[in-house]
Structures are given as C-alpha cells and as structure tokens.
Amino acid sequence: MSQAPQHEHEFEAAPGLPEALPQGERLLWQGAPNWRTLANEVLHVRALSIYFAVLLAWRAGNVLYDGGSVAQAGLSVAVLAPVALLALGLLTLVAWLMARTTIYTITDRRVVMRIGIVLNVTFNIPHRMIESASLRPGAQGIGDIALTLLPTERIAYGHLWPHARPWKLKRTEPMLRALPDAKRVGQLLTQAIMNLPTDSPLPAAVHVSAPTVSPTQAPRPATASVQTATA
Predict the structure, then answer these.
(1) pLDDT in tens, 173-214
(2) SS3 helix, strand, coil % of the chain, rounded to 5?
(3) Domain locations in the chain?
(4) 52 near 84, Cβ under 8 Å?
(5) How far, in Å, CA of 142 to CA of 194, rounded?
(6) DSSP for 127-147?
(7) pLDDT for 75-95, tens place per residue?
(8) Which of 9, 28, 172, 181 is nearest to 110 (CA)?
(9) What is the pLDDT of residue 10?
(10) pTM (2 decimals)?
(11) What CATH code is assigned to 27-33+102-228?
C-alpha cells in the first residue's frame, strides 16, 4: 500500500476521504499523481519548452540574418526568455499543486477521487458503477487508469478535468492519472471489482462540498478486468 499523503485538510475524516470508511470496508490503496508527468502530459510543459526554444532560436537567427551582431541577437533573446521561463514556471507550479491536492483511494467497494486546487471535490465511484477500466501504461511504470461508468451514471467533464480521459466529452471517463506503479494499482482494482459482494450497499456517487448526488441502484458490471489501452 502506498504511503498516504500528509493530512492537510482538517475537514476530512481521513486523508482523501470525506468521512470514515463504513464498518467492513477495507482500504486497499491510496496515492497521488506524479507531478512531473502531469506537467508534461496534461499541461504540455515539455512541448512548450521545445516551442519556446525554437522561437528564441528563430528570433536570434533573424537578427543575425538582418546583419545584427551576436550581442544584439543575445539581447533580443534576453527580452523574450523571461516571459517564456515565467510561463513554464507557472505551469509547472500548477502541475505540482494538482498532484499535491489530489488523493486517489481504492477500497474493496469503491474508488474515491479527491481533487481540486482551490475548491476540493470528492467523487465516490462505487465499483458497481464501473462498466470497465483501461490501463494506459507509460514510461517508468507510470500510467493512467480510465474508468468507463455505466451509461446511467454521468459526471461533467469540467468537474473532473484534468482527472478525466481526454476528449471523452459525451460520456466522461474518470481517470486516475500519472500513477506510479500503475500496473499494480490496476490489478488491485480488478481484484476489488471481481470480489465485490453482490449484496454490498452502494455509497453515494458524488460528494461536492455542499450538495450530495446519490446514484440509482445499478447491477454489477459485466466487465471487471482492467484492459491495456493504446490511447
């Protein structure tokens, strides 16, 4: 089990959980995204770094092509470089804050996602509401796990972003992003769904700071295994 992030939210009964687990429910795993992966894959910091580098090189080349000196080319780059560094620094900070304020929890009955930098929102997704799950592996064992919910269950894409599968706007798929050791986490989720008692009660589907949205009763999903996705 991964070490739980430090408890900074005093309103939570436990880190990442809006209330204590009901009697009989077991905590299987808890963790947070890798902030560097969020920076590169969600906020595209690496791609923007390359873009700014090309832009600065093109700016310097233009000055030299027009007959300017090396000093003048360097000055033209020095004017724009702080702006590029500031933008990249802010995006990196946002990625770090996203990771720091996010806690993913898997129990034997549900997946809990506590997300949000300014306004914390907690989504409780019972295993019975998960139709299927797909693993998108990445470098160094870091990957994403997307959850396909039953057709009757909907969560707005804007409420989940960036913890949602990209471009799945009509039928939003919650996504556990940038997970270290994602394959092992996927196996834990698979086992939890497969071992879910058919008579287990359903917790509330979504908790949002104030109002609570309760789900309708749903049958146990037919697809329980975590499939490896290519996109």
Answers:
(1) 999 999 999 999 999 999 998 887 665 554 444 333 323 333
(2) 35, 25, 40
(3) 27-33+102-228, 39-98
(4) yes
(5) 24
(6) GGGEEEEEEEE-GGG-EEEEE
(7) 989 989 999 999 999 999 999
(8) 28
(9) 53
(10) 0.79
(11) 2.30.29
